[in-house]
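ok here's the first one, seq then struct tokens
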Amino acid sequence: MRKRGRYSREFKLEAVRLLNEGKKPAAELAMKLGVKRTLLYRWRDQARVGGDAVFSGSGRPSKDRQSEISRLKAELKAVTEERDILKKAAAYFAKDLK
């Protein structure tokens, strides 16, 4: 089994630039760079969507960010439950008004 490669931001940006130039076919460029052709296309798509922040990290959020995400998920769950209870209560009291 082949180990997953890690490539620098500069390497990815240069690969995307070369792919966008279109001077060489993607398969030939991928072979020259030593990556899979599909990986080049994925990097190109990420570069189109990502803007300036593309390829800026390891892909994993930091511990602080992860704890904030967990806290926000818990808060969202609580607020969603409260909303559902209020909806049921409103429906219950609305049927008495009819």
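and now the second one, same deal
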Amino acid sequence: MSRKLFGTDGIRGTANTEPMTAETALKAAMAAALQFRRGEHRHTVVIAKDTRLSGYMLEPALTAGFISMGMDVILVGPLPTPAVAMLTRSMRADLGVMLSASHNPYQDNGIKLFGPDGYKLSDEIERAIEERMAQPFAVDLASPHDLGRAQRMEDASGRYIEVVKSSFPRGLRLDGMKIVVDCAHGAAYKVAPRVLYELGAEVVTLFNQPNGFNINDKCGATAPAAMRAAVLHHKADIGVSLDGDADRLILADETGTQVDGDQIMALIGASWAESGRLRGGGVVATVMSNMGMELYLKGLGLSLARTAVGDRYVVEHMREHGFNVGGEQSGHVVLSDFATTGDGLLAALQVLACIRKAGRPASEVLRVFQPLPQLLKNVRYDAGTGVKPLEDGHVKAAIAEGEARLAERGRVLIRKSGTEPLIRVMAEGEDEGVVKHVVDDICAAVQSAAAKVAAE
């Protein structure tokens, strides 16, 4: 059975429309409780959320589902996704839940599940939960005496703040640094400014007034323009931009120049390698990361292991092969010495530590490698015609020709979207003109193949 509800990052959709309804949330909670109910101890689940209006609908639905199966619920309110993972593990809870659609607009929401070890669930466990959701629950309901209880945890944010602060090197402070932090009106709107302030920084806080509708609205890691402008306006040393659930990070140096996840991973990986802390002999990233990072790491004697798109796949590879630095170009940075999932705030502190140790401006520290020219285009096709563009002979020939033109100093990446009828065509290489021609030729071949089937 393939997964229908679960995608690459839990269950996600438009609020109050399937699958993001109260009914589905209730069933998901009941099925997850059954999946993780084991032994005779009192079972516990930690539930957090970001600042979306729909959280007020989904949180009580999840709570009712878990309680009906005899599981106690600890509600921690708005907190970053990595905080849920941390609390689930540190409190020896049986399950953790984050209500968030990450960088999506307020209309969307999602349910992310974490096991007792603080890691996102495997595909196999998610399939098992889906199967349970399709079955009747009557025989598994808790007796009136064994119903769970719900309580709010008041010091959850304080616990997370102290864990994040403890990751910053001893003896280092941020005194004298002016930092702009964009909270995206999201889950870190309280904790992010607090961490930076308590470490000594002068903090300029942006987008920390959530109202249920403004999360990620022209702000956050996917829209960092306002943060970059604020860095220049306030003459700050650096800008930090988080997304709605604070598991990804985009930076800007003192000149307002944007810094993505590839540069962040390369900087931390090289720094940890120099200090003897790097494990696995390199960094783990996805197929979307720039080849410039790969060449830079290779020059240091380090490797770049690539996975499918999705931070969960990065984490799985890190765990299986013993890496402790990984992430995505989009800003998910996973540092497994400290966390089990991407943590934008924690990654920001590691970058700030590098800047402090170097004693140089952010612009001189954060530009670790020169990215190769990279171009991505999407080709939409009519899925109803049954066309399979990537199986067409002319498309295959165009891809092969593009790979030959870029040779060893470039690459071609073609992938079908998992959510839309799109073929994503990406190429990168040293010659920007060649890259453009390769992408355009492959896109033209895909369009031709789709048009041919539609005409038949």
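notes on #2: The chain has three domains: 6-154, 160-366, 374-455. Residues 374-455 form a domain with the TATA-Binding Protein fold (CATH 3.30.310.50).
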